[in-house]
Input
Amino acid sequence: MKKKKALKKGLRLYEGKELSKNYPITTIKADEIMVFPLSQHIGKPAKPTVEVGQRVLKGQIIAEADGFISSNVHSSVSGTVKAIENRLTLSGDKKPSIVIQNDFENEEIEGLGVKTDPSSLTNEEIIEKIKNAGIVGLGGAGFPTHVKLSPKNAKEIDTIIVNGCECEPYLTVDYRVMLEKGEQIVKALRMILKLFPNASVIFGIEDNKADSIKVIKGFISDNDKMDICPLKTKYPQGGERSLIYAVTGRKINSKMLPADAKCLVLNTSTCYAIYNALFENIPLIHRYMTISGDGVNQCNNFKVPLGMSHNSVLTACGGLKEDTCKIISGGPMTGTALNTLDIPVEKTSSSILAFTVDDVASIKESNCIRCGKCVSVCPANLVPQMLSKSVTNSDFEKFEALGGMECVKCGCCSYICPAKIPLTHLITIGKATVKQAIDEKAAKGGVTNV
Output
């Protein structure tokens, strides 16, 4: 086992993981009406392969990848296609979705869940099975996994980092996956190593998950090119750039891919999804989620059928407390505050958090006191105060010159700011403005003044 390492900057936050960490993953039943957005991943939305009125089976492809960076969508239930229409999603927008009325017969496609031995598969067949299964990065971004595993410099990749940090407060489902599915994760990684002959695997796991470190270590044999790198618990160490730096000391920026640093990063839940695809013939039809916070009647970790409403997931936890005032999809630092629960669980849905106190609503902003705390915690080594000021002054040339596009939107600067300036929000506006200008320049082929 490697020596314990840590991200140099960032924050040590209240964890809140004790609320749900001891609850094993349990399966909950699907809704009567299931909604499957065509865009649950980075890249082009999937293209429907079914029609209204058609009966579908559990595990069936209902929308296929439309291009290289896209992903298949499968039905998690059997039933009838009720509609193909715009439905409200986590993004806050209505997006094209396939609506299926569940017949509760759970009739499956042929071969679903049948155990197989993938050891004889070629590299191309491994990638194809992962692609067909619709697997995307389950750490939050949703990048199609078959694309990530197909870099142009496959022979140069020397390090595959398994992200077991789960550094956001309250989230515990990746922790539970490591505890309960450690053997399957290691088996999946043995198959992934076939794709990268010169690589080894390093598990990056924070030290607040000592028991999961022990479990994973127990399944690694002497012949495996795998090791564990314990990391001191720190946020946002689970971010891709931060994790690569913490584990290897290599730096990448917004214009680089991990492969440029001879690395690939896979989330633990993604690895388990790869196992399901290769060894069990199960596509990505479930999402493992943490339900937590003081506003939930019963915290838990769930195996949730994709397409199920957030409202039904919370109902399975006994519902919300009467004084609940804030609900978040994802972690409290980078998640999305919800104003409705009538949205479907997607591939990138990691958690639902509910709270009886809204800390943000009571914040009163004051003037910057030049304390420099935002600089001391920024994992990208930026000066958030100057970036936010350039945005308020509409000086986007200065914003870009100060490195604003390197911001990873972790929220550390806003959290630590004693003046309660919404630094992350302002920087996000700046990034969006600069990106729009760059896109317009590319489209026109001319000079752009941001």
User: Anything to note?
Assistant: The chain has a mean pLDDT of 94. The two ends are 49 Å apart (CA to CA). The CA atoms of residues 22 and 192 lie 30 Å apart.
